[in-house]
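Researcher: Please predict.
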Amino acid sequence: MATSDRVLAYLGSTRNIVGSGLALLGLVLHFLGLAGSFWPVVVIGLYGVGALLTPPDRVRLTISHAEVETRQLRADLDALVPKVSATRFPDDVVAKVGGLAAILRDILARAEALTSSPDQLHVVSQAIRDYLPTSLEAYANLPRSYALTRRGERERSAHEELMAQLDLLETGLTKVADAVYQGDEQALRDQGRFLRDRFGGSELDI
């Protein structure tokens, strides 16, 4: 990798972002008169602390063909979420959809693990392209006053029904996410077992 590419990669890294944020905090302390005459040292020190203590970005050394399969799902999700705005939906619905989107984006970021399980990929795909938009669309087509009103003592309002459906989706997607994370954990354990078998003996075994 060329030097300029490495510099650009670092500038966009989590470590640089966190370090810069802490350095900015140091400048704020200086302007408030709390950093003293050694404020440049404080700013540099805070940047260093942030850059050194922040975990490195997730490393992927293999070429992923699964990324192609999940790219369109991410695009579909990114197109759906902005449509769920406070002008059309209650705040709790907007917040819940935001939480679901965060879970889905985290799952989609693990394309290899997701696409290795057709059942999990199907659930994620249906959630983005069918389950979630169908529930939201049905609610959005109702007048707001009607959606918030119960029709009977034991019958949910449309708003309550939508929130219940979103809760069910959250439960299902959380299970998919847990399965994906367990796959990452198992891969780490398998690698550890391999390294112990390979390098855990005496030097004569190498």
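Model: The CA atoms of residues 29 and 35 lie 5 Å apart.
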